[in-house]
Write a structure and sequence with these properties.
It contains 25 helices and no strands. It is mostly helical.
């Protein structure tokens, strides 16, 4: 068995361990260190001090001490320390805790209920108005937080009971909430895009600019589906009565928009504008967003010590998870490549003589299947580094590939049996809402995601338009 075969076995053990439920970050570190000990094993270098002590007739304590020191003199431990240090000092990753804090503090600002009721009142004459308002609220709130579980849970507590009370079809109502809640991982400022950029070495700024139009295009496809289906099957979404909406003058509606929609929209636009127009780095813009989130929570009289403490705790926990995933992945990938695993996979894939389109389809199918058991963080950090070195051979731009991956990973939250959006929503739904109904409600949106990927492939200018306009064509 060659070292390349051992590397492939290392990858298979990782996949098996993940399916068995072992913590991914620590599994990556354990496999990296374990197989790395074998890969970098050098008895002459490691026990040189022990041999010298043995030749000089050292006592038992000295011999034991030098032997233990030699055991830990393997270069894998140096690699592990260096990888940890490089992750911690990565400037790109600095934006993650700041954006997370912004999301968690906005989540606790009690703005979602006002936003939903305002958008419902404004769209009351649109077919499926409550679903349209829920989708718009999900899109805006998901963009601000980027935390799928928080958005789906909050909208499940707020919008779902209102839609069910208005006699909306259960599948129609649950599907729009689950799909809308996942948009935060695609539309900037998205944590996923930062992690992908750090993994692939792409500029976060160009990544944000490239994702903006595809993200809103997908949201637009969702909106068209919601409205058209409400027109074709009006029994799914009965029109609201005056008692449901209430009477509001244009001035009242304008004031409601000004006090609920405008502040959150302004915060998002300020953060994105600062990044896209080069006024601030992503980390600096994230700091602005975090400060703006605090100001927004204070303005809505929702900034309490308890909420601030919860936001800081959740930010620290999620950031630690992402950082340790990066450390484990970097260690694992270094050992995997050193053993020849990356070259083995590269030779195998290139030997299949696939066209760029065939490779793209195969890669997206693999990522789609990985989305069943894995979170997007694990897919980006562990498996994307395997695809990235193959892209130049097929002439595929990593930026374009990353946008397709970000769209595809919407399905990671929508595809049974491990559709996390469905479980988030089921946890806060009334008892009569079945998990199977939620799954069926999400199915049309999975097809829309695939349709969006096809449109992006056929019209790549949707991806390149903003980056080229703002920063010029990349050579």
């Amino acid at each position: 068995m060659t070292d390349a075969h051992i590397a492939v076995g290392m990858l298979l053990i990782l996949i098996l361990a993940i399916f068995l439920g072992f913590p991914v970050a620590f599994t990556l570190m354990a496999l990296g260190v374990g197989f790395g000990y074998y890969a970098y094993f050098d008895a002459g270098r490691m026990w040189r001090g022990y041999d010298r002590a043995l030749e000089s007739g050292g006592d038992a304590f000295t011999l034991a001490q030098t032997w233990i020191g030699g055991f830990f003199n393997n270069r894998i431990f140096d690699l592990f320390v260096n990888q940890t240090y490089s992750v911690i000092q990565n400037d790109v990753l600095t934006a993650i805790p700041l954006f997370l804090f912004m999301g968690y503090i906005v989540e606790r600002a009690n703005i979602v209920d006002r936003l939903f009721s305002t958008l419902f009142s404004v769209t009351r004459r649109v077919p499926g108005s409550m679903a349209v308002a829920a989708l718009a609220t999900c899109t805006l709130f998901a963009t601000a937080t980027g935390i799928v579980g928080a958005v789906v849970t909050l909208m499940g507590l707020l919008a779902l009971p209102a839609m069910l009370k208005a006699r909306y079809d259960v599948r129609y109502a649950t599907g729009v909430i689950c799909a809308g809640g996942t948009l935060g991982i695609l539309i900037p400022p998205s944590i996923l895009l930062i992690v992908y950029a750090a993994t692939s070495g792409i500029s976060v700024v160009r990544m944000y600019a490239a994702a903006l139009l595809p993200g809103f295009a997908l949201a637009g496809f969702y909106l068209i589906y919601v409205v058209v289906r409400a027109i074709l099957q009006p029994q799914l979404a009965p029109r609201p009565t005056k008692e449901d909406v209430g009477e509001h003058t244009p001035v009242q509606l304008a004031w409601m928009m000004l006090t609920s929609f405008a502040p959150l929209a302004f915060l998002i636009l300020a953060v994105l504008g600062a990044i896209l127009f080069g006024l601030a780095t992503p980390s600096e813009a994230a700091a602005i967003g975090a400060l703006g989130g605090l100001a927004l929570a204070a303005a809505y009289r929702a900034l309490t010590w308890q909420r601030l403490k919860e936001s800081v705790y959740l930010t620290a926990r999620t950031t630690a998870m992402v950082c340790w995933l990066f450390v484990g992945s970097a260690t694992f990938a270094s050992v995997f490549a050193y053993l020849g695993g990356q070259q083995f996979i590269s030779d195998f894939v290139t030997g299949l003589d696939m066209s760029p389109l065939m490779f793209l389809i195969l890669a997206q199918i693999i990522i789609f299947l990985l989305g069943w058991p894995l979170e997007w963080t694990e897919i980006i950090v562990i498996f994307i580094p395997i695809f990235i070195p193959l892209l130049p051979h097929f002439g595929i731009d990593p930026l374009f590939f990353g946008i397709l991956v970000a769209i595809n990973l919407q399905t990671a939250f929508l595809s049974p049996p491990m559709a996390m959006s469905a479980y988030y929503l089921k946890g806060v739904s009334p008892p009569h809402v079945k998990l199977t109904d939620i799954f069926r409600g999400m199915m049309p949106y999975m097809l829309i995601v695939i349709l969006c990927m096809v449109v992006i492939y056929l019209f790549p200018s949707i991806v390149y338009m903003l980056p080229n306009l703002l920063y010029g064509v990349q050579r």
